[in-house]
Design goal:
115 residues; alpha+beta; three-stranded mixed beta sheet; 56% helix
């Protein structure tokens, strides 16, 4: 039962955090960013926000630094939008799954061409 609630809260946080970053966070270091997933603990106390950033490694680092600096604002705004007794602590991580998937796809194409 609690797992279903955690999933719903995570999905709502994903939507709201994405909206906050795109529309309200005014930091020039933030590049083209997509919130891909939010994982939240069962007790709803901690949330890990996974993001992808379009660009080189330097842009990714700048964007993650800007998100870390603005996470207090993001948490505050998300708390106003998502009705919870306590807003979860937020941490940001770069989501490498898309890059990994692209790499696998490239390798499979190369194997097919060799056959």
């Amino acid at each position: 039962m609690g797992n279903v609630r955690a999933n719903r809260v995570a999905e709502q946080l994903k939507k709201e955090i994405s909206d906050i970053i795109q529309r309200e966070l005014k930091d020039p270091r933030i590049g083209f960013i997509t919130v891909t997933d939010v994982e939240i603990t069962g007790d709803l106390q901690q949330a890990t926000v996974f993001v992808t950033v379009y660009g080189e490694e330097e842009e990714r680092k700048k964007t993650l630094d800007a998100l870390e600096k603005g996470k207090g604002f993001i948490r505050s705004e998300a708390g106003k939008r998502v009705q919870l007794r306590k807003t979860p602590e937020i941490s940001f991580e770069f989501d490498e799954s898309i890059e990994r998937g692209n790499r696998i796809e490239t390798l499979l194409k190369q194997m097919k061409e060799k056959e």
